[in-house]
UniProtKB/TrEMBL annotation:
Source taxon at top rank: Bacteria
Record Pfam families: Peptidase_M90
Keywords assigned by UniProt, alphabetized: Membrane, Transmembrane, Transmembrane helix
Annotated source species: Winogradskyella endarachnes
Transmembrane domains' residue ranges: 14-36
Statement: the UniProt record of this protein carries the keyword Transmembrane helix: yes
InterPro entries found in the cross-reference section: MetalloPept_cat_dom_sf, MtfA_fam, MtfA_N
A single Gene Ontology CC term: cytosol
Entries under Gene3D superfamilies matching the protein: Collagenase (Catalytic Domain) (3.40.390.10), Glucose-regulated metallo-peptidase M90, N-terminal domain (1.10.472.150)
Coiled coil region boundaries: none
UniProt-recorded name of the protein: Zinc-dependent peptidase
Keyword Transmembrane belongs to the record: yes
Gene Ontology molecular function: aminopeptidase activity; metallopeptidase activity
Amino acid sequence: MILKTEEEVREFEVLTYFIVPSIVVLILLFIFYRLFKLVQIKYADKYSKPIFNHVYLLKKELAPNHRLILQQEHSFYNKLSKKNQVYFEHRVNVFINNKEFIGKQELIVTEYMKVLIAATATMLTFGFKKYTLDLINKVIIYPESYYSQINDTYHKGETNPKLKTIVFSWKDFLHGYKIGNDNLNLGIHEFGHAIHLNATSSNDISSYIFNRGFKNLISYLQNNEEVRKELIASKYFRAYAFTNHFEFFAVLLENFVETPENFKFQFPQLYKYMQDMLNFKFAGY
């Protein structure tokens, strides 16, 4: 074919030198992405963790007053290596800046409240690659237990995925936070619900690991009647755990974080499932 005009020549050059190479690059990128997803899943199946966990284009430094609160108040943070503390601070910063904190009944939300709540969420998702809990946009804080017209009762906390909100009674959050070995921790419990619900509606690698691990945990209990009986007889987990699967995980999470040695000693296989689901392999766990 003979090109007759300069315009046809230019069109041919654009097609040859720009459009075709661009299409080839896009196809190669898509193939690479699909291969990486496949490799990532295979790696997660074998090791119960993402290939990369802490990859940040720009790490955000925590404000000095926020860091001081962590150093003085958060034992988990202080058990981390210096490198992991930097990652932890970055994630706390992201949580504080990405979520809206709302005080109710004339409660004034302080920086102290923000840091303790953000640190709880960061601790529980520290093993996740995608850690932002997109299920939640707002953190609502009441001074103490509050009345709910929905079910005509008083609440200490709740997680509402429809409103993308997590709610705490500050009095009860702080009580659970300060007493670290009674397996009653409102912050851990409610963020446990948020993590569980977030994973059921997400397809990132950490959600995949969580969902697969939870399925294995439930299957293990269903196939081992003696373990189920032992769980109930031991009274190590409070009775509320047996309300449904969501409460079961949230209560197990409280025990896992607050009394890990007892958990591991009494129910080592359950402990392993929890550790794998959360990729919780740091700070002595």
